Amino acid sequence: METRAEQFVDRRIFRIVSDVAAERGVRAFVIGGYVRDCFLGTPSKDIDIVVEGSGIDFARAVGEVTKSKVQYFKNFGTAMLRFQGNEIEFVGARKESYRRESRKPIVENGSLRDDQLRRDFTINAMAFSLQAEDFGALVDPFGGIRDLAAGIIRTPLDPDTTYSDDTLRMLRAIRFCTRLSTPEHPFHIVPESLDSMRRLNGRLSILSTERITDELCKMLRTDQPSMAFRLLDETGLLPRILPELSALKGVETIEGMGHKENFSHTLAVLDNVVAAQRARDEVAPPGPDRPDSLWLRWAALLHDIGKPATKRFVPGQGWTFHGHDIVGSRMVPRIFTALKLPLDEKMKYVRKLVWLHLRPIALVDEEVTDSAVRRLLFDAGDDIDDLMLLAGADITSKNPAKVARIKANFELVKRKLVEVEEKDAIRNFKNPITGDYVMELYGIPPCSEIGILKEYVKEAILDGRIGNNFEEADALMREKAAEMGLKPCK
Ligand code: CTP
Q1: Burial annotation 92-103 (CB, 10 A radius, 16+ → b, else e)
Q2: pLDDT-based confidence at residue 402 (cuts at 50, 70, 90)
Q3: Taking 60 as the threshold, does the pLDDT of residue 271 lie above it?
Q4: Predicted pLDDT at 99
Q5: Residue with the nearest Cα to atom 8 of ligand 1?
Q6: Ligand 1 within 6 A of 43 CB?
Q7: CA angle in degrees (0–180, nearest 5) for 390-391-393
Q8: Domains in the chain, start-ordered, CATH in brackets?
Q9: What is the pTM of this model?
Q10: Residue nearest to atom 13 of ligand 1 (CA)
Q11: Handedness of CA 195, 200, 120, 232 (dihedral sign)
C-alpha cells in the first residue's frame, strides 16, 4: 500500500495549520478517518486536526488567518471551522481514562502518541505530520497501514481497555469491518477483539439508544449489511439490541421435518435488496420522491420478524408461519419505539411493506386475476415498486429449479401490474364518489350511510365490476342508495 503521504496533504488548509503551529510553537497533525480514507483512495471532506496544546485556542488562531467563523464545543474541548468545502475539527491531544459506569472521560493533556493510543482502531490512529521539517510524514506507531492492507480491524491497546473506554467502539468495529470489506479485499476483526466483545457486550447498556441506532443505520447503509448482523450475532451484541431478530435463529425438527433457518434467510433477503436497489439506481437514479433506501433495508431486516410468534407444526404437513406478515407488521411500531427510530411516515412505510411482503408471491401461485392485482395496487399505493423489489429479494431457496420457476411467474405478475395500472390507474386511487357529493345529492348530514356507499363503489372498482371513473361509479352508487331508501333531493 502507498505510504508516501505528501500528495494527500498538498492543500492550502494544511499549509495554514502548519504555519500557525510553527508560530505558536506547538505540533499539529491530521489524524483519524481522513488519513485512513486517503490510503483507501476516498479522502473525505471531514478533517480532524490534533494539536499538542489547546485545540480551541489553535482553532481561533487558524480562523483568524482563514477568516472563517469558528464554532466552539467547550464541553468537548473541540472547535470546528469550514474552509474551501471542508469541515475541519480541532482537538488538543489527550490522554484519557474513562469511568467504568459512564462514557464521560477524565481528560488530561497529552502527546500525539498518547492521543493515538486512546483511539479506537489502528487504521483510525494514523496521522500526517504538519511540521515544516517533515511535512506530510505518516506517523503510524501501531501498524495501521499494515492492517489496512491486510484487512484487519484491531485496537491499539488491549481490546478490553479500548472497548471499556468507549463501548460504542464495539459497534464501530463491526461497522468499519462491514463498510471496508469488498469481495476482492475482505476485512475481519481480530479474534481477541471478538472475544473481548463477547465478554463486554453487557456494557452496551450504558450507551444511549440513539447512538446504537445510529450505528445500526450506518451498518444497514453498507453494501453487504448481512456481515454486520452476523458479527453482531457472533459477539452476543444482537440480542441486546434487536432480540426479535435473534429470535429468528435456529431450525426446529419434528418428524424429520425442519423449517427454513429464518435468520440466514433474512440476511440473504437484506443483501438481495441492497443489490436490487443498486441495480435500480443505475437504471433510474433516485429522485426526491423515492424514499430513502435505508427504510426498505429496515423492511427487509424485519420482514419475517413475526415468524417465531406464529410458528406451528402441523403433523403430516410440516411447519407453517400463518399470519406472520400481520403479526410482524404489528411488531414494527414497538421495535421502532424501542430503537427510537422515527414513528412517522417512515415507520408506516416499513410496517406496510412487512404487512404486504407475501402478497406478490402469493399471486405467483394463483391465477393472476386483474382483481387481485388491483387490490395489491390499491393496498401498496406508491410503494408498489419497493414492495415488488422486496418480494423479489425474498425468493430464496436451495433448489435452483424452484427459484427459476417462481422468478418466471414473478415476472408475469410484474407485467400484469403495469397493464392493470395503465388501464385502471389504481396506484393513487381516489374514490370518484366523495362524501361531500353524497351529502349534497341526498341532503343528508355526515352519517354512516356515506361510508357504506363509498366502500361499495370502491369494492366494485377493485373487483372490476365497474371502471374507475365517475359516470359508472355514480350510477352504481345511486342504485345502491335507492336500495337503502335514499332519494336524491334534486
Ligand atoms: N474515534 C475513536 N473512538 C470513537 C469515535 C471516534 O477513537 N468512539 C476516533 C477515531 O480515530 C476516528 C476519529 O475519532 O477516526 C473520527 O471519528 P468519526 O468522525 O466518528 O469517524 P471517522 O473515522 O472519521 O469515520 P467516518 O466519519 O467515515 O465514519
Answers
A1: bbbbeebeeeee
A2: confident
A3: yes
A4: 54
A5: 169
A6: no
A7: 65
A8: 6-150 (3.30.460.10), 152-241 (1.10.110.30), 435-483 (no CATH)
A9: 0.91
A10: 32
A11: positive
Q: How remote is the CA of residue 22 from the centroid of ligand 1, in Å? A: 27
pLDDT digits (tens, 9 = 90+) for 14-40: 999 999 999 999 999 999 999 999 999
Q: Is the pLDDT confidence value at 2 over 60? A: no
* Ligand 1 atom index nearest CA of 34: 24
Ligand 1 atom, smallest distance to 166 CA: 8
Is there a contact between 352 and 398 (Cβ–Cβ < 8 Å)?
Answer: no
48 lines ligand 1 (CB under 6 A): yes
Tens of pLDDT, residue by residue over 448-479, are 999 999 999 999 999 889 998 999 999 999 99
Taking the C-alpha atoms of residue 104 and residue 418, their distance in angstroms, rounded to an integer, is: 56
Output the CA torsion 307→308→310→314 (10° steps).
Answer: 100
- Give the nearest ligand 1 atom to 168 CA: 8
Q: Which atom of ligand 1 is nearest to the CA of 48?
A: 16
279 contacts: CB under 8 Å, gap ≥ 6: none
Looking up cell 471531514 gives 46
Q: How much is the pLDDT for 227?
A: 98
Nearest CA to ligand 1 atom 14: 32
Ligand 1 centroid from CA 119, angstroms: 8
The span from the CA of 433 to the CA of 468, in Å, is 10
Per-chain mean pLDDT for the chain: 92
Report the alpha-carbon distance of residue 49 to residue 93 in Å, rounded: 9
Cβ of 120 less than 6 Å from ligand 1:
yes
Exposure string of 366-394, with b = 16+ CB inside 10 Å and e = fewer, is eebeeebbbbbbbbbeebbbbbbbbbbbb
**Spacing, Cα 345 to ligand 1 middle (Å):** 31
Pocket probe mutation, ligand 1, options 30, 120, 215, 221, max atoms within 8 Å of Cβ: 120
Instruction: Write the residue with the smallest CA distance to atom 28 of ligand 1.
Output: 33
Residue 285's Cβ-side half-sphere holds a number of Cα atoms within 13 Å equal to 0
